[in-house]
Amino acid sequence: MTDPIDRSAVVGVDVGGTRIKSVLVDGEGEVLAAKVVPTPSRPGPELGRVAAGLRRDLEDEAGVPAGALAVVVPGLVEEVVGIARWSANLGWSDLPLTQLLAEHLDVPVTSGHDVRAGLLAEHRLGAARGVDDVVFLPLGTGIAAAQMTGGQVVAGSPWTGEVGHVVVRPGGPVCGCGAKGCLEAVASAAALGRAWSAVSGEERDAEHLAGAVAQGDPAAVQIWQQAVEDLALVLAPVISAAGTRLLLVGGGLVLSGDLLLDPLRSALAARLPGRTDLEVAPAALGDRAGALGAACLAADLVRSAR
Fold first, then answer.
1. pLDDT value at position 1?
2. Is 105 helix (H, G, I), strand (E, B) or coil?
3. For residue 135, what is the enclosing H or E element?
């Protein structure tokens, strides 16, 4: 039986819209050091330098050298050639990510997609262990999904998993991609915060909305339930086509627990009659899933070179 992460220590870096999270892990998947830094205002050209600096800081903290490093990013990513094709939230296109890393690092490097990496981490180290047919759905600033079939994460084209850009409310709020009424524009944590702010007349976020839902506020419940219905509308055909057995929900919204998961289970059951084998559960690795998934990619790189 192989270890989830190779015995050589590796670094995983997860680039988000506001923060870059990084970890150095050992061969057992144990986090030896971790660091979070703000995302630069022009994150594309800076990523090689930032990753190199994080590697040095993590190695200094842990007293252990890293044998490889991987960076994962949101948006459209073509892993085979190491190019981040496009990101609505980070403002880049055709970014040669792996090349930028190689220019600043003297260890093997690779790059990937943050959500697909998060699913890989959850399968090896978290809540998806032992399940080989999984959809991973982090609900945060944006919405993207990752799919695992037969124990393999599906990469496909750069658009694989971009469920957040399915239009569910034609003519609705403008999405970061430029379209109106995308799932991401109405059901992400950021979108729910905007919707509740508009109704309440004060600056609010999704956590405030969840609190109002728990208290039974009718306007809050309506916003919440509509978002859940929109999620189920998009996810049901994906789950049905892939034969998914586990829907793993992550991101900030899942902190609301069964307040979110119970109505989502009901909405999916209404659209997938007979699918009594489908489990809907919270992810286990929290906001470190992407960085840990990047570490898994780096470990695979080390292993493949042997």
1. 32
2. coil
3. strand 134-138
